[in-house]
Design brief:
- The structure is a single chain.
- This protein starts with a helix and ends with a strand.
- Helix 1 crosses helix 3.
- The radius of gyration is 21 Å and the shape is globular.
- It is mostly beta strands.
Length: 377
């Protein structure tokens, strides 16, 4: 009971605003949406009109529309932290055709504030080249975040990691000791370094003794960190072209002692990394949104193409990797063009880290990742 109380308190402290008081101080946007038949014609799909389950670390919210310049004044509605208020007001008309609007959420006690930038933008294909040169510390200064830049220079937070979850286990760890960090010794410039870390006494208590370094296209949702860890990883973002292959460079060294979920040594096993990807339908037969997570990113029936690096032997020198997408399920070209598919791409320092098995100290470096699409070879 004591541990449960302490963990709940840590989640309250480190998801959303960083605060000192125990109650009425949250100031987060939990959900944002627009509505109306007239407005729906500006969206490719009805589900694009709602941004649900906004991750606690996300402060840039983007609605994707057909043509930004043609957008009329829009009223955005919100679900906020209990008791919180937002300025401009919920449901007030704003002109997004000229650019983003900054909303400020104020906690119920009036002591805490958080700014969100809300934008309506035309769909663009994320960059096919990823050098991982752009990163920064999270708002609380605890861990690193990565982003790409759009053609207009806008930050696009398409990459995520489990760093926010690790913060619950080790809130006092410096940012450089988290599982996923930047490293200046890349193939060219900076790279991403993924290291399997011990989660200490917290992890042993809850049978989550390790945290593999992971890095993926998507977002992290800390609300499930204590109840269903594999649901914290929202794996995949919208792509409107069919991927053919993924290439890049890696280095890898396994940790010395492989352990199971009870942190018992398994002398017969040596840790290994993984890189895998999937193209999948992002709506089911009833039109409901589909998002893959750590528990089904390899097995979901909505996957139409899969790719995985078959072998990644340890190496202290940069080595090129390549994986090719395979699958025979027909891809609907019209649906693809209208944002009907997501692409997941996952890197991890421990292949079975999702089962909390691996070796503390296993380290994977990745850099110069490139996605090749059909008809662009």
């Amino acid at each position: 009971m004591k541990y449960t109380y302490l963990l709940a308190l840590l989640v309250l402290l480190f998801t959303g605003c960083i605060k000192d008081e125990p109650q009425n101080m949250e100031c987060d946007i939990l959900e944002a949406w627009v509505e109306g038949d007239a407005l729906s014609q500006h969206f490719s799909q009805a589900t694009d009109m709602r941004l649900s389950d906004v991750p606690s670390s996300q402060e840039q919210l983007t609605f994707i529309v057909r043509q930004r310049a043609a957008l009329p004044p829009v009223a955005v509605h919100f679900r906020l932290s209990p008791g919180a208020t937002v300025t401009p007001a919920d449901g007030s008309l704003q002109d997004f055709s000229r650019g983003p609007v900054v909303y400020t959420v104020t906690s119920e006690d009036g002591q805490w504030h958080r700014s969100y930038t809300i934008d309506f933008r035309e769909a663009t294909l994320p960059s096919s080249h990823h050098d991982f040169e752009d990163f920064e510390l999270s708002g609380n200064g605890k861990y690193y975040l990565w982003y790409d830049r759009a053609d207009d220079g806008t930050k696009e937070g398409i990459w995520a990691s489990g760093n926010e979850g690790f913060m619950i286990a080790k809130p006092n760890a410096p940012a450089t000791d988290y599982p996923t960090v930047p490293d200046a010794d890349g193939y060219d410039g900076y790279c991403v370094r993924l290291t399997t870390r011990s989660t200490g006494s917290w992890g042993k208590t809850f049978k989550k003794p390790i945290a593999a370094g992971n890095f993926f296209l998507g977002s992290f949702d800390s609300r499930f960190a204590l109840t269903n860890t594999l649901k914290t990883t929202n794996m995949g973002i919208v792509y409107t072209k069919e991927p053919v292959r993924v290439t890049g460079y890696y280095k890898y060294q396994p940790g010395e002692v492989f352990t199971d979920k009870d942190f018992h040594e398994v002398s017969t096993r040596i840790d290994e990394p993984t890189i895998h990807a999937a193209l999948y339908l992002n709506h089911d037969e009833q039109g409901n949104t589909v998002m893959l997570h750590g528990d089904d990113v390899r097995t979901s029936p909505y996957i139409v193409r899969r790719a995985e690096v078959a072998s990644m032997p340890p190496t202290s020198e940069w080595r090129r990797f390549e994986m090719t997408f395979e699958g025979t399920t027909p891809i609907d070209a019209e649906l693809l063009a209208n944002r009907g598919y997501n692409l997941s791409l996952v890197f991890s320092s421990s292949k079975t880290g999702d089962a909390f098995e691996g070796a503390v100290g296993s380290t994977l470096y990745i850099d110069k990742v490139e996605i090749t699409f059909k008809n662009e070879e």
